[in-house]
Amino acid sequence: MNGEVGLMLHHYNEICILSYDPSSSICMVKDQGKFYQDGIDFFGCCHGLVLLRLVDRDRSHIITLWNPATDEYRNLPHPTYEFEDRNDYIEYGFGYDNRLEDYKVVSIASADEDHIEVQVYTLKSNSWRRVENSNLLYCVDQLINRGTPDMSRLPVDGAIYWIAETETKTSPSKDYEVIIYFNIETEQFDEMPFPDLFDESYDTNLCVLGGSLCLLGFNTDIGSAAVWEWKLNGVKKSWTKLFTIDLQKHFGGLLTDLMPLLSLKNGEILFGFDIETGSQIAVYDPKHDTIRILIDVDEGLKGFYPHHASIYVECEVSLDKGTYLRDIMMENPDEERAHNSNYHFQEGNGEENEEEEVEGTGNAKKKIKQI
């Protein structure tokens, strides 16, 4: 991408791909399309591949790996669980095993705390296998009921992290939080204490910045946000504050959500913000406490929120299938697919996209819309 940063946003059955060039501060829409399915769930990206779940109205679903750079995708075989009637309670994680040089997907299925099943898929084998004695002590609804933003689903240091809610042993009516993680190489779960950095009035979420696990805390009522990094200090790791943002100063009382997306080389932070008038992609400069809006979300992108935004890095890895995601996307909901074979994506306003022929190839290429 020549130094460009890829951003992926999704909402219901729609995906939007943006590119951001830090050197020129230009952010533009590359592709935007809708699926025939009724919903899209994002379960992480790693080394250029993205794990998606395409959900139909009857709650049936397909798990697929997708390379946005080549548009190639591969549907994963459906794992068989002991409790098929609880397929809504399935959580996934996605990462890369450096020792085996293979991509892995972990699947967590549970009916309750006493019936938890963990399976692992490897891309080279294209198959699932059960993992016994995984040390997982939390059922799926303790993970997903909390809500998991896309940026918390990125693997960090060979592990995938979640925040889990559970009851205290001394007071079963009171919930407390822990951070659990799945080691991609050993295929074991472990946990670490949830840090006491914010009081109960703050919303908290994990995220990944600069290759480190971070914790975001924000309180829109008092207009405050802060990000802490889990980093090595001397001989052990601890939480270190990276920066704070005065939300009241920059947004008044209009901000409803935010998510840090990327640490830039100059120390600035790429952010997603949601305000009452819509969502924005912006750059925050902690040193000078300034915010520069890159995209003031228009009608074409309305409906995307910071929780549903993630960074990805393009790569040319092949999934060896020869199947392309544009072929299962809507071209125009009001017309037959075969009638419009020369355009692949639909802009959010429902208008047809212009295409241009690449000289000497005979292939159609979508014109990029610059914001």
Features:
371 residues; mainly beta; five-stranded antiparallel β-sheet; four-stranded antiparallel β-sheet; 2 helices; 26 strands; disordered C terminus
* Number of E-state strands: 26
What is the global morphology? globular
Largest sheet: 5 strands, antiparallel
Radius of gyration using CA atoms only: 21 Å
Separation of the first and last Cα atoms: 18 Å
Strand content: over 45%
Q: What does the average pLDDT come to? A: 80
Based on helices, strands and strand pairing, what is the structural class? Answer: mainly beta
As a percent range, the share of helical residues equals under 10%
Strands across the major sheet, in which order?
A: 23-1-2-3-26
Please provide the ordered H/E string of secondary-structure elements.
EEEEEEEEEEEHEEEEEEEHEEEEEEEE
User: Low-confidence runs (pLDDT<50, min 5 residues)?
Assistant: 332-371
Individual helix count: 2
Please provide a written account of the structure.
The protein has 371 residues and is mainly β. The chain is 2% helix and 49% strand. The protein has 2 helices and 26 strands. It has helices at residues 141-144, 247-251, and strands at residues 5-11, 14-21, 26-34, 39-46, 49-55, 61-66, 73-75, 90-97, 102-112, 115-122, 127-130, 159-167, 175-183, 188-193, 203-209, 212-219, 224-233, 236-246, 255-263, 269-275, 278-285, 290-296, 309-312, 355-357, 364-366, 369-370. Strands 23-1-2-3-26 form a 5-stranded antiparallel sheet, with no helix packed on it. A hairpin with a 6-residue loop joins strand 6 and strand 7. The protein is globular, with a radius of gyration of 21 Å. 35% of the residues are buried. Residues 332-371 have low confidence and may be disordered.
